[in-house]
Every structure is written in C-alpha cells, then in structure tokens.
Amino acid sequence: MPVQTSAGAAQPFFAIDSQKFLFSFSSYIAAAATLAIAFSASLPRPWWALLTVYVTAQPMAGAFRPKIFYRLGGIVTGAVVTVALVPNLQNSPELLILCLAAWTGFCIYLAVLDRTPRAFLFQMAAFSSAVISFPYLDDPGNIFTTTISRVEEMTVAIVCVSIAHALLQPWSATPVIRSKAEAFLAHASRWTAEALGSRHTALEYEHRRTLAADVTELGMIAIHLPFDQRAAPATRRLVLSLQERLATVLPLASAAANRLDLLRELSPLDAPLEALIDDVILWLGGVIDTPGAVERALVDRCRSLAALHEQTADWEGLLVVSVCERVAEFLEALDDSRRLVQQIGGAPEGPQPVTPETVSESYPLARDHSVAALAGLATATAIALYCAVWILLAWPNGSATAAFAALITCSFAVQDDPAPVIGRYLGATLMTFPLAALYLFAILPRVDGYGMLIVTLAPALLWMGYIQADPPRSARALPMFSCFIVGLGFLARFQADFAVFINTGLAQVGGVVTTLAVTKLFRSTNVLWTARRIVRGNWADLEQLANIRRPFEAERWTGLAVDRLGQIAARMAVAPAGDALHETDGLADLRIGRNIIPIRRALVAVPHDVRHALGMVLSETSSLFRARRQAGEAVSPPVSLLEAIDAAIDDMLASAQLAPRHQALLALVGMRCNLFPAALPFESARAR
User: Fold this and answer.
1) What is the CB-side half-sphere exposure of residue 234 using CA atoms within 13 A?
2) What domain range includes position 336?
3) What confidence tier does 626 reach under pLDDT thresholds 50, 70, 90?
4) Membrane-crossing residues (predicted)?
C-alpha cells in the first residue's frame, strides 16, 4: 500500500534496498554451496558449516575479506589447542576446564588489547577451541577426528562465502573511506563555523568527541585496504596521511575558537579581524564557492594580520596573533584534507598536497593492558562457572549450554558492557524459535532432496540475511541464524525429534541467560571505570611529554590523544550528570599537549635564560598532570604554573632573537588560555 510523503509523492510502504538484498543473496548462494559440499563429502555436522557462513559474512567487502583470513587462522589455532589439551587432561576434567578457561581468557585479553581486525583471530581461537572441546568432554577418545571435522566444516564455509561475495558482491572499502572522510570534513566545517562565530551549542563536546572517533575509525578501515584491491598500499598511505591531517584539524579549530572567546571577553574584535572571521565562516559554510584560490587568500590575510600585531607585546595583541596563526594552520590542514579525499578513489584535482610517502605505515592506537586483562579475566571466570554448574548438576545438555555460552561470551567480550547486546540476543533467539519449529515439524518433512531443501530455506535465509545487512538491525541476525540453523540440526538424514529440539533450544537459551547473568555480575560496572582509565592514561602521557628527560614523538602522541578522545566519546553517555568524568576536557588536554611539543622543540634554539624559563613551565606542567593522574580527577592547575608561563612569555618577548609569532611563544599563549581561562590578562613585568 503506498503512503503519501510530505512532498506529495507516493512511496511504497515497504521498499527493498538492492544493495542489502544483493548481500543477502550472496550469502544465500554461499550457504547453498556449503551445504552441497557438506552433504556430498558426508561431513558429520553440516549445520556447523552453514552457521559459519553467516557468522563470517560481512556487508562491506573491505571489512569482510581480512576477517576471513584471521578467522581461518583462529580456527586452526583453536583446533591445535584442543588437540593438545583434551587428550592429555581427559582424566582431570577440572584441570582441563581451568586450562580451557584460561586459554579463552588469554585470547580475549589479546583481542581487547589489539583493537584491529586482527582481534578476530584471537576471538576465533578462543571460541573455536571452546565449542570443539566442551560438547565432547564426556567422550574425548575421538577428539582428534571431531576436531578435524569441525575445521573442515568451517573451512568449507569460509571458502564458499569468500568466493560468493567476491563474485556477486565486489564492493570496496574505498568508497566507504571517502564517504566517511567527506562526512567528517562537512561536520568539522559546520562545527568550526559555529565555534568561530561564538554560537556554541549544548552538544559541542559530544560533536568534538564524535569527530575524534571518526578519525580513529578511518585508521581501522585503512587496515582492510590490503585485502581490498591491488593498489591498496598507495591508498593506505593516502588514508593514513588523511588521518594525520584530520587529527590536526580538530585541535587547531578548537584552539582558534578558544582564543576568539577570550578576545571577545576583553573587548569587541577590531574590524579587520572581525571581517576575516566572517569570511572564514562564510567559506566554511559553503557560501563562498572556492576551488582553492579563496582559501589561499584567507590564509594570506591571516598571516598579514598576524604580522601587523607582531609589534605589540600586550596580551590582546598576542591573542590576535595566536588566533590568526591557528586559523591559517586550520585552513591549510583542511585544504590538504580535502585534496587527499579527492585522491582516494578518484583522480586528484588541483595542486598536490604533501606526498603521503612520508607518512608512517600505521596510526597509533591507545592500548590499556588493565582493561584487556579485566575482559580476559571476566571471560575465563564466566566459562569456569558455566562448566562448574554443568558438572555439579550432571545436566546431559550442559555441554551444549557451555558451548553456546562460550560462543556468546567471546563474541561480545571486547565491549565494555555486553549485557544490553546479550539481552537483545536473547530476544532475537526466542523470536526465532517458532520459525524453526515451523520448518522442522511442518515444512521439512515434506521436502525431498537437496534441491528442494535449498529452495525451501530461501525465504528464511534471505530474510535473515537482509536483516544482517541493515546496520540498525544487524545485531539481531546472529542469534536468529544460530537458533534457526542449530534448531533444525542439519544432518545427513532428516530428523524431527521434538525432545531433541526442546533440549537444544533450552541449551541455547540457557547459554544466553547464563552469559547475561555473569556479564551483569562482572562487566556492567566496567564502562565508567574504563573511561577513567583512558583519561588517566592520557594524563600519564602528558606528564611524560612535558618531562624533558623523556624522549617524545610528536605525531605518535597526537595520534594516541585523538584515539583516546574517540574512545571516551561513547562512554561519556553513561556517566551520571554529576560525575567527575564530565569535568575532564580531552580536547583541552589535546591542545595542551600540542602546545608542549613546540616548547620542547624550542629548548635547543633559544637563549639560556629563556631555556630556563621554558624548562620551568614544562616541569610545572609535568607535575600538574602527575597530580591529576594520581588523584584520578582534574586537579586545578597551581598558581606557580601561571607564574612560570607569564615569566616565560615575558622572557621571550624581551629576547631580540624571538618574534611574537615564534611557535614556542604561541604555545605558551595557548597553554595560558587552556589552563587559566579566567585569569587576568597577561601583563609584562617589564612594563609595570
């Protein structure tokens, strides 16, 4: 039935997305081929192969292919561990379970710590050993044959799904990267225009953190590129180069807005600066259509206005110079980013940006061993508890429950709080049981032969595959496939046993419920703890960055800080309104760190007395972030740090060798603005 839209055009009530349907159809073809091979080769558990097809399939080909290789490696690793442990410890089931739990926890620790697609290797190694081992602990004599069968079934499925999606769904990660980068630039331009115009919104911090999360996500997608196309190395360098540019866009825009706010508090902006900012806002908003010439003119105007204020040594003049320099750097970084976006997946237009060959081959990720260890410990404890209940109750289907519980635990272990997702998993499982019963007891008894079976399964598999391709509903697909495929119990000969069906269903539900209970017990309070750990990790890095006795890598630190800012973004939403976590401003910390870097670089180039003053600033800054790290909260900066900054600014202004546009002087101005926004304006001691 058509519905009427606001524009008056009739739209169908239900429209099928062709791309999502193509993904579902590709998975269905892979499932059909997998079942054909499994039946013809007389594999003992064809349903394992069929389930692996849908566990492995991914809507985006660029993300899909590397996970296949990692999953194959994980399956082989898990099989090797199974064969090594089960026969040797079959007479000590308690020790065997402890070893399997410890192995699973260790794999999850590595998966959480890695934070790249390589984590799928560790996850697959964890749950493949669990689902191979647990159902056969009562009869370990044939564990080698069983393990080989599981590896064969999973490998057949992975090969079939790889071929089907490569032929029928040859999509690329490159358009996704370009779309993500274009969306980032549009969002960043819109937010920067609002911030420069003093039109701050209530969601400003959330927008900033979302932008930081997008920068980190680009690096994650770039890892898929070697599996996506032959020219991937060059494209990957472009993406990493783009990521580095975008990582500078955020703090530069924020710094310019910060200085403008302080200037407006002192007095109205002078006419040239006001006109410049208005033109920049118009350009960012797309009102001024420019292929590059106007952007270059805006940068030149920024530098010219900064040069006019170089002769003034008062605080207002220093703020104007800082604003102009930061706006110019922001415009250059934004223009380079746009040129790089044009090069990704398309022909470059206009002048070339800095060559990406000079960019590092990886983007740094912030890793926390304590967070990873907690996830691994929770997983190992949960699996040990499942097995303890199974053994103590002597439940015949307990092994299946333990296997399902291990599968669910390993699938969601990388999340801070998996309980909500597991709750939806339970709902989708219960919803699919009637469909599985309808097929098993009403439809399949009338099916004769492989061809009719595949045709009969098409409506259910295509429907669930379409759900899997829809991002808002994709989390429901795995439990639906699991319940449907395991409930039907595809074997060489059809079996419709009601008792077996009920016991299998109870095992699945029991595994989900047990996992949900253990998750709420161990993991649900972990989100805020993790966020605080990330903030303290950032403070620890700032403490070391300001320590002149420690070496530093500017680009690496910036990448880590932006990555941490993105990690905090999703976790801020669960923090209560009065939580101290809201008092921390990761973007201000990012700006402070980027100001520390030019100060450290200037130590070898300034006169001795100025070097001593800069050293005092760095020492006080290091002490501040050490105090914040130890207290676990945003301790207010001491007055001694403000005095050290003012003394360093005074010494640099008095030096004939240093101009007000010197990067270290601008960095000192930035640190004063970030750490002491409410302080009285700077006044030179020599002018008193």
Assistant:
1) 8
2) 173-343
3) very high
4) 21-41, 47-64, 69-89, 95-112, 371-392, 426-444, 450-467, 474-492, 498-522
